[in-house]
């Protein structure tokens, strides 16, 4: 049997996995118990999962993940208080039921902004109050940067209605409800690309200057066999570290396909691809060990190849982005990551 993954990294950082509530039982649960010491909910703690209506909370699925982590001595991340996706409509409708983003009247827009920020504060206060003693690292906002949108800020309902007000309110509310013990992150993908990284850096600097309590940057790190370079991943973390911030790798996986390639390797992953993946995973983890002062954790977005969002994105096809295969056996990449 393979030596435990997280144990191999005990001197470096926690190693985690994203899970669905069902995976806290059965074969996946056993794999998790052996190999990781950190968990995050893949979907169960997103706004649409927790708050189907204003003031109505459905905690059961999220609680199952928390209970499993606690029972097995694992830490937790929270994903995610604020996002443009998987967020119920009720946040963005005014008292008359109209979409706030459509309001053109200045006074109406001001009232909408106030109402939305008040809802956000109530929501965050409720969620943080419930989990503050169990969860230490929190994605407060997710994916707010979009270099192709005006100002480089994603033109989400949040941004259209409040400007960057939602970011300020989200961090301040989380800090207020959770206290200084919580580590609060701004999370995004593509943070290694200079364009995205530099816009994110600018935003974070601006927020810090206003006293907004941001503790770190979450780097999703959905990478593939070729892109981005390991150097660019490290460089981005260096940049935020120099600002006094922590970094976490929050959603690591490695697709077999480069961007825009819609091909399929077929039902069985060819050995040479598994070897390329192993070499690249090995290179990445060697660099992370080497620069462990830059980060405080590595979270995989899944644990084994039998469950990954990539198997349907961007098309349905064979994917194998994790360190364990569909039978939960360690892959060549598991060896290169643990053999040091
Ligand atoms: O819960 C419903 C279920 O009731 C329904 O029967 C089923 C039919 O399609 O859909 C289920 O919802 C799906 C949900 O995952 C739970 O399985 C959604 O369709 C599906 O879109 C959703 O995908 C998730 C995706 O976020 C949504 O944007 C993926 O599982 C999840 O891995 C992915 O995670 C994101 C991170 O939050 C942010 N960073 C990128 C990452 C990958 O996209």
TrEMBL record:
Residues of the active site: 251
Known EC number: 3.2.1.8
Protein's pathway: Glycan degradation; xylan degradation
Superkingdom per UniProt: Bacteria
Keywords on record: Carbohydrate metabolism, Glycosidase, Hydrolase, Polysaccharide degradation, Signal, Xylan degradation
Domain GH10, residue spans: 1-340
Coiled coil: none
Annotated family: Belongs to the glycosyl hydrolase 10 (cellulase F) family.
Protein name: Beta-xylanase
Organism listed in the record: Paenibacillus rhizoplanae
Positions spanned in the full protein: 80 to 419 of 419
């Amino acid at each position: 049997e393979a030596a435990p993954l997280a144990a191999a990294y005990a001197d470096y950082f926690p190693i985690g996995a994203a899970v669905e509530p069902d995976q806290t039982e059965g074969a996946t649960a056993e794999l998790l118990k052996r190999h990781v010491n950190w968990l995050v909910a893949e979907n169960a703690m997103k706004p649409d999962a927790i708050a189907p209506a204003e003031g109505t909370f459905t905690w059961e699925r999220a609680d199952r993940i928390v209970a499993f982590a606690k029972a097995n001595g694992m830490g937790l991340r929270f994903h995610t208080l604020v996002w443009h996706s998987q967020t119920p409509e009720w946040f963005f409708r005014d008292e008359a039921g109209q979409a706030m983003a459509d309001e053109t009247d200045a006074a109406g827009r001001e009232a909408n902004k106030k109402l939305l920020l008040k809802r956000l504060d109530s929501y965050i206060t409720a969620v943080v109050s419930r989990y503050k003693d169990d969860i230490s690292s929190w994605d407060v906002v997710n994916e707010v940067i979009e270099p192709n949108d005006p100002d480089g800020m994603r033109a989400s309902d949040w941004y259209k209605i409040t400007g960057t007000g939602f970011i300020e309110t989200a961090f301040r509310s989380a800090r207020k409800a959770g206290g200084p013990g919580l580590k609060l992150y701004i999370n995004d993908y593509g943070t290694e690309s200079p364009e995205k990284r530099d816009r994110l850096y600018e935003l974070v600097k601006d927020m810090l200057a206003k006293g907004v309590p941001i503790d770190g940057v979450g780097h999703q790190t959905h990478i593939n066999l070729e892109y981005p370079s390991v150097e660019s991943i490290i460089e981005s973390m260096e940049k935020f570290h120099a600002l006094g911030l922590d970094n976490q790798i929050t959603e690591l996986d490695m697709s077999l396909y480069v961007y825009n390639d819609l091909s399929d390797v077929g039902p069985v992953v060819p050995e040479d691809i598994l070897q390329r993946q192993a070499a690249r995973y090995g290179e990445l983890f060697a660099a992370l060990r080497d620069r462990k002062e830059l980060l405080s954790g590595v979270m995989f977005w899944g644990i084994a190849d039998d469950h990954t969002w990539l198997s349907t994105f961007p098309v349905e096809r064979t994917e194998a982005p994790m360190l364990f295969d569909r039978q939960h056996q360690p892959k060549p990449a598991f060896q290169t990551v643990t053999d040091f």
